[in-house]
Amino acid sequence: MSLKDKLLSSYLAFEDNLEQDSPIHDLRNEAIKIFELKGFPSKKEEAWKYTSLNSLLKTDYSVFPKQLERSIEFKEVKKYFLHDIDTYKIVFVDGVYSSFLSETTHDKLDVCLMSSALNKAKYKPVVEAYFNKAAKQESLTALNTAFAKEGAYIHIPKHKEVEKPIEIINFSTGNEAAVFLQPRNLIVVGENAHVQIIERHQSLSENEVLTNCVTEIFAEKRAHVDYYKIQNNVPTASLIDTTYISQQRDSDCNVHTFSFGGKLTRNNLNFYQEGEHCNSTLKGITILEDRQHVDHNTLVHHIAPNCESHQDYKGIFGDASTGVFNGRVIVEKDAQKTDAFQQNNNILIDDKATINAKPQLEIFADDVKCSHGCTIGQLDEEAMFYMRSRGIGKKEARALLMYAFANNVLESVKIPELKRRINKLIANKIGVSLGFEI
């Protein structure tokens, strides 16, 4: 049985065990029909031209993993948390909420579970107003919607500045030979509210894991959202991460994506600027080795006038790794005075490494400032010679150049403790220990 057929048959049993009066009952049924019609995306689709899921779909995944009584001690997973500072934490183990590892709140804001939001009447107005409203009818998003049950639910009321960052962490333990997880996150940031969120998916074993994650973020007027994705998983873990961000007037949304590991990672990041004077920032650092594959598929849709967007992705590729950057900017006819910048720079460390880059601008307005660029090259030999001639070893010289290459992306990280953590991850990936921090 194919994975598609297995999911379709599993949905019948899944849906029978749900409350029929669920606020998303009809959405589920519509979504599974979309997935049945479209199936998994293939390389025949332009957006998936450079990324194939065929090797992943051959695995016999457990769609509903068994919940064994295996407790995870905090000391086992402490390194995956931002433990240097106090944070709210929403932690899932094999798709199930872990109260022991989490720290949620309902004190003037909601940092809790999607399952609670879907099943409790007090959350119904927010769920009906926002759930699946930014998401598009794409096959993998529809699949996630059909099986949406658990994930993070974050609602920040207007004029509220969240005092500490929020961490969303999904662990897989390896209780199953192979597992298919589908977390669904809903984040609503009210008018003039501020929040910082860190998201991570981490496998604790070498067993196969495929995660199909969907996140919807709604930024109301003058809201500020800083979102950080840390992707540094084991070589047997794959992630398809789809994020939809809806921005209203004067909102400011920033997403940083750090992709350092995993078998296959696909990041679908979609911004929709629906009010004037919005600002969108998309930045990323990718460092790959072995036969790892990372695909950044971005969209910034400028719908309203007087808005800005800034994209800056850096990639360092070694061994036989593959990188993809498919960046798309759409400027609608009414989106006059748009200022959109897009840049993708890549370094190939080894001859077998590959990068496929396709920056795109679709402009229907006539009074705009838009630019895009892409570079693919190697480390500067003259700079290497200069440092080597002054007694710096080859390995250290290469590391210094790579740090300099990624520096401007790290500069905009607003959580100092996270910045230091990313700095150490980069040093570890490069294989050196440097006596400074960016």
Topology:
Blueprint: H1 3-16, H2 25-38, H3 54-57, H4 74-77, E1 88-93, E2 96-97, E3 110-113, H5 114-119, H6 124-130, H7 139-146, E4 152-156, E5 166-172, E6 178-181, E7 184-189, E8 194-203, E9 208-219, E10 224-232, E11 237-247, E12 252-261, E13 264-273, E14 279-288, E15 293-302, E16 308-317, E17 322-331, E18 339-348, E19 354-357, E20 360-363, E21 369-377, H8 381-388, H9 394-410, H10 416-430
Parallel strand pairs: 1-5, 4-7, 5-8, 6-9, 7-9, 8-10, 9-11, 10-12, 11-13, 12-14, 13-15, 14-16, 15-17, 16-18, 17-19, 17-20, 18-21
Antiparallel strand pairs: 1-2, 3-4
End-to-end Cα distance, whole Å, is: 50 Å
Strand content bin: 35-45%
Q: What percentage of residues falls in helices of 4 or more residues? A: 10-25%
Report the structural category: alpha/beta
Could you name the ranges where pLDDT drops below 50 across 5 or more consecutive residues? none
Determine Rg (CA atoms, Å).
21 Å
List keywords for this structure.
438 residues, alpha/beta, 11-stranded mixed sheet, 10-stranded mixed sheet, 21 strands
Account of the protein in words:
There is one protein chain. With 438 residues, the chain is α/β, with parallel strands linked by helices. Among the domains are: 1-181 and 194-210, no CATH class; 380-438, no CATH class. Helices cover 22% and strands 37% of the residues. It is built from 10 helices and 21 strands. The strands form 2 sheets. Strands 3, 4, 6, 7, 9, 11, 13, 15, 17, 19 and 20 form an 11-stranded mixed sheet that branches. A 10-stranded mixed sheet has the order 2-1-5-8-10-12-14-16-18-21, with helices on one face. A hairpin with a 2-residue loop joins strand 1 (88-93) and strand 2 (96-97). Helix 8 crosses helix 9 (394-410) and helix 9 runs antiparallel to helix 10 (416-430). The longest helix is centred in the C-terminal third of the chain and has 17 residues, at 394-410.
